[in-house]
Design a protein that fits this description.
The structure is a single chain. By secondary structure, the chain is α+β, with helices and mostly antiparallel strands. Among the domains are: 107 residues, Distorted Sandwich (Cation-dependent Mannose-6-phosphate Receptor, Chain A); 37 residues. The chain has four helices and twelve strands, in the order H-E-E-E-E-E-E-E-E-E-E-H-H-H-E-E. Strands 1-2-3-4-5-8-10-9 form an eight-stranded mixed sheet, with no helix packed on it. It has a two-stranded antiparallel sheet with strand order 6-7. The protein has a two-stranded antiparallel sheet with strand order 11-12. It is elongated, with a radius of gyration of 43 Å.
Length: 295
């Protein structure tokens, strides 16, 4: 009887269940993050910068690029270049452990022949025994965009960034960007080089000092010299001290005996040997067997 009732009213029961649960069920659609925000990623694989970016420097008309990012797709990887900040790489994959990492953090300019050649992004994620680093070359283009990415060496990346901001032939010159004080210093360095007062090596070092003071180059870290206290080879232990004392005392006794053999008295108070004065009554000088009649 029950089986017949269920078979007759099964469609009605199904509709009733769907009606009751329909108001509580919700389908949520989330954008595919390709593993970039996977909560299963270890904390160490998150994008964590090891250093802070250097201050913004260089041609002032490029400062407007700060705060912007430019993307480039290469195979399964997406590269993001954020001028004066960093360069990152994101693997566009459905793998649960898809790679995302920092390829470099803004550090300094590369300068050659009075021209800003490229940005250097260093201190990126670890890569074996070194850190990843990226060189970003600036070239003229109709729009600001990341044009190409390559990896000529393991964990060393080259990016080409096109922008109309560098199309003017003087847009990347270094000298006009310097302060009057640093321009004067550069003039004096050039004059000293012309007069052969400094070597080429000295010229390059002094010029680098100017660029470092301007903030274009990162100052090289000077190794901290720690004063190393070299312990005396003697008297390192009580036993050695006692042995040394006995040795010195024996040497003093030997010298005192030697002085006594030569009739030289030794005064303990002053520590200075005294030689007895030879009188005429002695009639002899020490070491001379003759008579002092002619003296």
């Amino acid at each position: 009887m029950i089986d017949v009732f269920i078979r007759q009213h099964l469609p009605l029961l199904a509709c009733l269940v769907a009606l009751v649960l329909g108001g509580k069920m919700k389908i949520v659609e989330e954008p595919n993050t390709f593993g970039l925000n996977n909560h299963l990623l270890s904390q160490g694989s998150q994008l964590q910068a090891r250093v802070t970016p250097s201050p913004i420097s260089g041609p002032p008309h490029l400062f407007r690029l700060a705060g912007k990012c430019f993307s480039y797709m290469e195979s399964m990887y997406k590269y993001d270049f954020c001028p004066f900040h960093n360069v990152t790489q994101h693997e566009q994959s459905f793998r649960w452990n898809a790679y995302s990492g920092i390829l470099g953090i803004w550090q300094e300019w590369e300068i050659e022949n009075n021209t800003f050649i490229a940005m250097w992004m260093r201190e990126g994620d670890s890569c074996g025994t070194k850190n990843r680093q990226t060189k970003v070359l600036f070239t003229c283009g109709n729009s600001s965009r990341l044009a190409s990415v390559s990896e000529p060496q393991t964990c060393v990346y080259f990016l080409t960034f096109e922008t109309p901001l560098v199309c003017h032939p003087h847009s990347l010159l270094v000298y006009p960007v310097l302060s009057e004080k640093l321009q004067k210093e550069w003039d004096e360095i050039e004059q000293a080089r012309y007069e052969e007062l400094i070597t080429e090596q000295g010229y390059n070092k002094m010029l680098r000092d100017v660029f470092e003071e301007a903030g274009f180059l990162k100052r090289a870290k000077q190794p901290i010299k720690q004063e190393q206290h070299t312990p005396s080879p003697k008297h390192q232990t009580l036993e050695q001290c006692t042995q040394e004392f006995a040795k010195q005392r024996g040497e003093i006794e030997r010298l005192r005996s030697l002085l006594s053999q030569h009739n030289i008295s030794y005064e303990m108070a002053t520590g200075r040997p005294t030689i007895p004065l030879t009188t005429v009554q002695d009639q002899h000088l020490r070491g001379d067997t003759g008579i002092l009649d002619n003296i």
